[in-house]
Amino acid sequence: MMDMKVANLGAASMSMPAIGEPVTRNEEANHELSIRVRDLNLWYGQTQALQNINIDVYQKNVTALIGPSGCGKSTFLRCLNRMNDLIRGVRIEGLVEMDGRDVNEVRMDEVALRRRVGMVFQKPNPFPKSIYENIAYAPRMHDLVSRKADQDELVERALQDAGLWNEVKDKLHQPGTSLSGGQQQRLCIARAIAVQPDVILMDEPTSALDPISTATIEDLMDKLKKQFTIITVTHNMQQAARVADYTAFFHLGELIEYNDTKTMFSNPHTKKAEDYITGRYG
Amino acid sequence: MSQSFDEISAQLKRRHRKSARLKWLSMGALGLAGLFLVIFFADMLGKGLPAFQQAQIRVEVTYSEQSQQLPLAAVNEDVRELVSRGWLRTLPMMMRDNPQLLGTSRQEWVLADGQVDQYLKGHYTRLDDDEKEIVDALAEQGRAELQFNTTFFSRGDSKMPELAGIMSAAMGTVMTLLVTLAVSFPIGVMTAVYLEEFAPDNRLTQIIEININNLAAIPSILFGLLGLAIFINFFGVPRSSPLVGGLTLALMTLPVIIIATRTALRSVPDNIRHAAFGVGCSRWQVVRDHVLPLALPGIMTGSIIGLAQAMGETAPLIIVGMVAFIPDISASVTDAATVLPAQIFTWAGEPDRAFVEKTAGGILVLLTILIAMNATAVVLRKKFERRW
């Protein structure tokens, strides 16, 4: 009886967060809204893969999405730049709002959206073209550069931001596929940032990489979040704890807990998140 | 109780024997196939190579008023039967074009009659004994011999074997294939791109896909009937022309190109498409800048093989009238023309013994072109194939 009272008191003393906000605020993090998601539901044919997702993603942070396989975290990530449009039989309901616009609305051009929301994939997938061309292709396509000199400068800047410049500056015209796995992934990051997006989505960017390349990418994410909003899916909870400001835990298509990363890993708010984080399932 | 190694080995002996037997059987099959190929080529070369040589005789040619009226008078009576009549008939025209020849006479190598040619090659001939003696005498003096047969490669068909050549058929084939390529390549590739990259996966596209696959298996003569009904009867395209032949063969080649292109597109890994979509490419940009360049070697290989197949096709062309006697080299795609396999077909039906070697020679030319085209396909694939 007594215990329950204390517990009730404890809960009451914690100010309840509004829908979509993290349970606990990370005071070091930036809190300007980047992407607002409300009541997002997604079906693959008859199977519902996402159920009533509500989340506010903040600018210039790293937000990690964690959860067991098949929990919907990658599906959710692909909702943010409409990559799910490419899959047949997908139905989406709900609001994904960026810059005051619903990204799923009819007038929204998915090409314009993907220009502002870049993506890095699980397996490094550079174009089978030269390193230079890998970076220069998209900005040229979007008419961000016209003169050759501007293009050279942009390629150099993107490669420098991705921490790859020193390794490849002498072989810009060799194929991108000749690089090592970790370098290829950084090339893909450079390719994504070359069009100056607001948000970079990363779908398990280090799962195909060795530990050293993984550490390099994690450092890079830490650096890049000064310029970009990064949302990353990861299977690796240590990685989420190391790089993320906020962490969202998904389970069976539901967003169970969205919390400050430190709080999430030290004092999770929900039983399911605690069980997952302490390794009871996964 | 577990078995010892010896016991297991004893059981294994039978299995090893079986696999050895299968190995020998499959090697035997390969050997047999190789043997057939060798026999085929040896036969073709043996029969066809003589067609690349042609008997010529050196005779006194008189360019006179009389021989302008009566070309037979241009050569001496004793060799009159040994000189190609077809060549003699060209004399008045030659003299009209070169008036300075009139009133002269000189020793010249001229085309011999087909019977002389056959005699010199050791085949059956209709020459009588006197004529044979004259030919033997000329040969001894070095005035009758087999020379490289330029006629075969430079002239069209003729009823006289010594004048029959493959050039009109070769030109017909080239023009027909150009029409086929120009029609079927863009349509086929774009159809495949649409079906593979743009089309929704619904009942309609599935039906289209099944029908395209069926189309590839339809007997080619039916395409000929279709070409006859549509292109000749309905659109009024000239009969026997490379245009109608090319269009008909294009119908036949379309499914081959579509299927090859779809396979090539499907073999481009999806992560390339995702990468391109991820940087904000529109669907068409994804296809044009990333998918098509990677699929191109496969598309080219498939198209060349489809064209090679079309090149060897005779049945549909019979229906649209391209199996015809075409002595002149056609100048445009709307003139009457014939193609190499049709020419071979025509020659194979000639009663004259001399046409046997023409037939084999034509086959050699056709095979050479086919092998060259397939080799090009292999080279293109090796050269442009990219790893990713």
UniProtKB/TrEMBL annotation, chain A:
SMART domains referenced in this protein's UniProt entry, alphabetically: AAA
GO cellular component: membrane
Ranges where the ABC transporter domain occurs: 35-277
UniProt keywords, alphabetically: ATP-binding, Nucleotide-binding, Phosphate transport, Transport
Pfam families: ABC_tran
InterPro entries, alphabetized: AAA+_ATPase (IPR003593), ABC_transporter-like_ATP-bd (IPR003439), ABC_transporter-like_CS (IPR017871), P-loop_NTPase (IPR027417), PstB-like (IPR005670)
Gene Ontology MF annotations: ATP binding; ATP hydrolysis activity; phosphate transmembrane transporter activity
Protein name: Phosphate ABC transporter ATP-binding protein
Originating species: Litchfieldella anticariensis (strain DSM 16096 / CECT 5854 / CIP 108499 / LMG 22089 / FP35)
TrEMBL record, chain B:
ABC transmembrane type-1 domain segment(s): 170-376
Transmembrane segment boundaries: 21-42, 163-195, 215-237, 243-265, 360-380
Keyword GTP-binding: no
Principal cellular location given in the protein's record: membrane
Pfam families reported for this sequence: BPD_transp_1 (PF00528), DUF3333 (PF11812)
Keywords: Cell membrane, Membrane, Transmembrane, Transmembrane helix, Transport
Taxonomic lineage of the native organism: Bacteria, Pseudomonadati, Pseudomonadota, Gammaproteobacteria, Oceanospirillales
Protein name: Phosphate transport system permease protein PstA
Compartment(s) where it occurs, according to its Swiss-Prot or TrEMBL record: Cell inner membrane; Cell membrane
Single GO molecular function: phosphate transmembrane transporter activity
Domain of life: Bacteria
Topology of this chain in the membrane: Multi-pass membrane protein
A single BP term in Gene Ontology: phosphate ion transmembrane transport
InterPro entries per the UniProt record, alphabetical: DUF3333, MetI-like, MetI-like_sf, Phosphate_PstA
Family designation: Belongs to the binding-protein-dependent transport system permease family. CysTW subfamily.
Cellular component GO terms, alphabetical: plasma membrane
